[in-house]
Amino acid sequence: MSLRSTRPGRAKMRVAAAMASALGLVVSMAACGSTGEDEPAQTGSIDCGPYEKFGDLKGKTVSFYTGIVTPEDTAYINSFKPFEECTGVTIKYEGDKAFETQILVRARAGNAPDIAIVPQPGLLAQLVGTGTVKEAPPEVVENVDKFWAKDWKAYGTVNGKFYSAPMSANVKSLVWYSPKEFKDNNWKVPTTLDELQKLSDDIAAKGKKPWCAGIGSGEATGWPVTDWMEDMMLRLSGPQEYDKWVKHEIPFNSAGPRAALDEAGKYLKNDKYMNGGLGDVKSIATTTFQDAGLPILQGNCSLYRMASFYAANWTPGTTVAEDGQVFAFFLPGKTANDKPVLGGGEFVTAFADRPEVKAFQYYMSTDTWANVKSKLGGTVVSANKGLKIGECKCTDIDKLSLQLLQDPNAVFRFDGSDLMPAAVGSNAFWKQATAWITGQSTQATVDNIEAAWPK
After folding, report:
1. Within the chain, which residues score under 70 in pLDDT?
2. Rounded Cα–Cα distance for residues 280 and 278 (Å)
3. CB burial class (10 A; 0-12, 13-18, 19+) of residue 219?
4. Claim to verify: residue 153 and residue 179 sit in the same structural domain
C-alpha cells in the first residue's frame, strides 16, 4: 500500500494495486508518420493524427509532478508511452509524497513543473492565486465538455475560468460488508436510508454490533466523520443545499448541517451499533481508519462505511468481489431512485503553455488516455464517460465505482471539506468531529466549526 499523504480526499490514501505491464498496449516502435494516404498513423492502439496540429514536438520534454508514487506510478508512466511514441515528447515523471505542500512552494518560487496532478479544487484555487497556472487550451475544453459532466468541469474552474481537466476519481458513498454473511442471514442490500437503519436494527437484535468505524489518521484524525456528515448532508438536504453549505452561503451551524451530523450520529454515536470487534463508541477515535473495517473478516461487525480506495487495506489474499469475502454496496439515498454520490478526484493542471505541454494536456483529457490507463491496472476509476468499463483491467470494486459515476441518475458532489477553506476543511472540521465522537454535542460541534470559518 502506498500512502500518498495523510488524508483520503484532501490527501487521500492511494490504492496499492498490483501494477500490470503494458498488456495489450505494447507500443509500436515505428516512427509516427503516415502509414497510407487514407490511414492515420498508429502507435499501439492510438491515433497519432490529433497531435499533428501541435507541430513538430520531437525532442521536447514535459515535466510531470504528482503525489502518485511507487508502486502506483508504474501504470501511469506506461500510459504515457503511446503519447511519447506519437509525438517524440519525453514525459519526465516525478512522484512526491509531500506533493501537496511542495507544489505551492514551487509555484510561489517560480519553480513549478509543466504539469501537476492536483488532488482537490481548494488546492487548485490556491495555485491559481499564485498567478502561475495556465488556462486550459481550447482542445482540452472541448474534450472536457464532451466526456465529463458539468459538475466535474466546475471543479476545475476558478473565478469563472477553466484551468484543469479531471483525471481520476474515487467514490466515498460505499458500505463494506460480507456477502457470505448477508446470504447466510438472508439480509438484503438496502436501497433506501430507512432500509439501512432497519438492517442495522435487525443485526443489533441478534446481539451483534452491526457497524465498525475508526477515525484515526495521524494529524488528520477525524476526517472519516466529515465524510459521514457530507454523505448525510447530500442525502437529506440535496445537492443545492450541499453546495450552499460548502460555499458558506448557509452557516455551518444551520438546520441542514445539524440534521446531517445528527443523522450520522444515529450510527456513529449509537452504542447498540458501534463498534463491533473494537470497543464502544469512544473506541472509534482511537482506531485508525485503516484497521476499522477488518473486523468484518472475523465476523465481529457487518458494515463499514468507507471509500473505494479502502480495497487496498484488506488482509492480503482477501477476495474483494460480489461473491467474495468482502464487497461494498452504495450508501443509499432517501429513495431507491436517489443516487447521491460523494467522492473525490484529481485534476491535470498546467503551469506552462508550450505546444508540447498543450499536446500532453490534450492526451490526458481524451477518452483514449482513459482507456489506455484502464487496461494497465492501478487506479483506473474515472468519471470520463468515454471509459469502456467492459474493457478495463478493473477490480470488481472499480467496476462498481465506475457504474455509479456513469449512472445517468447519479448526482456527484466533491468531498465538502476539500472545498472548504483550510482553516475549516483540514483543521476545525477534523478536530471538532473528533470531539463530537468522544462526547461533544452536535450543537457545540457545528457552532465551533462555524466560529472557525474565515471572516
Report:
1. 1-45
2. 7
3. exposed
4. no
Alpha-carbon gap, residue 72 to 69, rounded angstroms: 6
166 Cβ contact partners less than 8 Å away, ≥ 6 residues apart: 144, 148, 152, 153, 155, 156, 345, 346, 347, 348, 382, 383, 384
Q: Which pTM value belongs to this model?
A: 0.84
Within a domain: 325: yes
Nearest-angstrom CA–CA distance, 399 and 223: 25
Q: How many whole angstroms separate alpha carbon 301 and alpha carbon 303?
A: 6
| DSSP string computed for 363-380 | HHTSHHHHHHHHTTBSS-
User: What is the rounded CA–CA span in Å between residue 213 and residue 289?
Assistant: 7
Alpha helices in 73-222 (DSSP H): 73-79, 81-87, 99-108, 121-129, 138-147, 150-155, 179-185, 193-205
Contact 222, 8 (CB under 8 A): no
- 187 is in which domain, residue-wise? 174-330+421-452
Query: Do 196 and 157 share a structural domain?
Result: no
- For the chain, the domain total comes to 2
- Whole-number Å distance between alpha carbons of 310 and 16: 10
Q: Which candidate, 262, 296, 299, 267, places its Cα nearest to that of 281?
A: 267
- Give per-residue pLDDT as tens, 302-331: 999 999 999 989 999 999 999 999 999 999
Say yes or no: 359 and 263 in one domain.
no
If asked whether residues 324 and 390 sit together in one domain, one would say no
Helix and strand tally (H, E) in the chain? Answer: 19, 13
DSSP 190-242: PSSHHHHHHHHHHHHHTT---B----B-GGGTTHHHHHHHHHHHHHHHHHHHH
d(CA 111, CA 114): 10
Whether residue 32 is contained in a domain is answered as: no
Same domain, 318 and 184: yes
113 three-class SS: coil
Cis upstream peptide for 50 (omega within 30°): no
> Which residue, among 398, 373, 407, 368, has the nearest Cα to 386 in the 3D structure?
368
One-letter amino acid at 303 equals L
Please indicate, yes or no, whether residues 361 and 398 belong to a single structural domain of this protein: yes
165/180 same-domain check: no
The mean predicted confidence, pLDDT, of the chain is 89
Q: How far apart are CA 366 and CA 144, in angstroms?
A: 8
Distance, C-alpha 350 to centroid of its chain: 20
Query: How far is the CA of 45 from the CAs of 74, 376, 391, in angstroms?
Result: 19, 13, 13
Instruction: Output the pLDDT for position 45.
Output: 67
Beta strand pairing call for 410-414 and 339-350:
parallel
Tell the burial category of 367 from Cβ atoms under 10 Å away from its Cβ (0-12, 13-18, 19+): middle
